[in-house]
Amino acid sequence: MSEVxxxxxxxxxxxxxxxxxxxxxxxxxxxxxxxxxVPGMEEIPLSLSSVKSEKTVTFKIxxxxxxxxxxxxxxxxxxxxxxxxxxxxxxxNDNQKKILLVGGGIGIAPLIPIMKCKSVDAVLAAKDKxxxxxxxxxxxxxxxxxxxxxxxxxxxxxxxxxxxxxKVLKEAKYDEIIACGPxxxxxxxxxxxxxxxxxxxxxxxxxxxxxxxxxxxxxIDDKRVCKDGPVFxxxxxxxxxxxx
Length: 244
Known about the structure:
globular; 7-stranded mixed sheet; 23% helix; alpha/beta; Rossmann fold; 2 domains
C-alpha cells in the first residue's frame, strides 16, 4: 500500500539529474529502493539517496516518467511504496574495515548514505564533468579520500571506473568494495574483484514493475532483483550467470 508524501524541494543537480527531498518516517537502509508514482506517469523504482527521516530520491531524466517527476514543485505530493529489497550489509560497530565505494553515473546516488555514516573512500565515475560534479561536492564533505574518473577526461582520471580502481588498489589496500553503477561497469569490476580475491557487494539493476517479487519482471535465473537484491553479496554474485 502506498503512502502520500509532500515534496520539500526538487533540486536540479545537473543537466540530466534531479533530487527530490521529502519527509517519511519509514525505516530504510542504504541500497534499498522505493516505488514512486504521481498522476501522469507509470510507477517506477528509485533508489534512496538518503535514508534518514528526511529522505531523498535521485534520478536521471531518461523518459516521460522521470521527466514528469522532474516537474514536481515543493508542496506537491507523490505516492511512495516500500522501502523494498536488501540493502548493503554494513556493520555499524566495525570502524576498522577499509571500504572502497565505487559508483558509476546515477549509481553514485545510492552510495551517498554510506558516505555519510561510515569512514570510507570512494571512486566516482561518469561520462563527463557535468554528470559527476555534484557528487564530488558530497565526497569532499564526507569521504576520507576520493578519486574521480570521466570518460572524456573533463574531470579527474580519463577512463572508466574499473581502470581507476585498479590504479587506486596499487597504492592502497581495502577489505571490501561496495559498488553501484551500469551493468557493464559492475561486470568488469566483479571479474576483477574475483581475480584479486577482493570481497565485494554490488547493487544490480533490472526492470522492476511491482517491487515486491510478485511479477517476475526482474528475474536473473532464479533470483528476483527486487526481492533477493538489489544488493548482492559475493556469494550470491557467484551464483549468477557468467556475465556477473
